[in-house]
Amino acid sequence: SAVISQKPSRDICQRGTSLTIQCQVDSQVTMMFWYRQQPGQSLTLIATANQGSEATYESGFVIDKFPISRPNLTFSTLTVSNMSPEDSSIYLCSVEGRQDSSSYEQYFGPGTRLTVT
Amino acid sequence: QKEVEQNSGPLSVPEGAIASLNCTYSDRGSQSFFWYRQYSGKSPELIMSIYSNGDKEDGRFTAQLNKASQYVSLLIRDSQPSDSATYLCAVTPGTYKYIFGTGTRLKVLA
User: Fold this and answer.
1) H/E element holding B49?
2) Are the C-beta atoms of residues B74 and B55 closer than 8 Å to each other?
């Protein structure tokens, strides 16, 4: 499985500001995923990011609020823009590891715990 | 109807017992199924994946898949207090598409 790191691990931010979360993988991967996990909730996919193309956002998430960069095959960033307390959440980066053409698995980074005051 | 349904629990089992966790899904086209364990304050950790009907065993864990019934389960044998966590079921209804359930909280009582 891939080793994934995220920075920062946690942050406390003021409303109206923006935070950029970095995700680094120890191997080249085609697709990277960004999730949000609100307190006591399950994971919600924000977007998928393929190197060299625009990220694909899920319903309810927009690029202006969550811009994503994917400059190469081992790195991605997610920015949470113009934050409000409702953005307080854990943000998780993940990658998909394909074992063969029909089997693949998803692995998660350690997450970024964001609190907006 | 939720796409992936799990009983939120908590499911309490005594140490050494078998814990049985269940998950149902709505998309009949789903091809891959996963169980993740998530400790409080930590990120999800993959413990089992299953792709075809039947049972798949890995140590104390057994995943069971029944696509006709749209049902996937996880059995944990000889449960230990360290197994106490939230278990998330995930299915893939399409390429690069993962849908997670809300998770079942398991408590193993010493």
Assistant:
1) strand B45-50
2) no
**Cross-chain Cβ contact A108/B96 below 8 Å:** no
Q: Among all chains, which residue has been given the structure tokens 């413990």?
A: B47
Write out chain A residues lying below 8 Å of B90, CB-based. 106
Contact B45 A108 (CB under 8 A): yes
Q: Which residues of B touch A41 (CB under 8 A)?
A: 102
Summarize pLDDT for B48-82 with one digit per residue, the tens: 999 999 999 999 999 999 999 999 999 999 999 99
CA dihedral B91, A80, A94, A53 (to 10 degrees): 90
Q: Are A18 and A107 in contact (CB under 8 A)?
A: no
Main-chain phi, psi angles of B81, to 5 degrees: -55, -30
Chain B residues with CB inside 8 Å of A106's CB? Answer: 34, 46, 90, 98
Q: 10 Å Cβ neighbour count for A38?
A: 13
Amino acid at B85: A
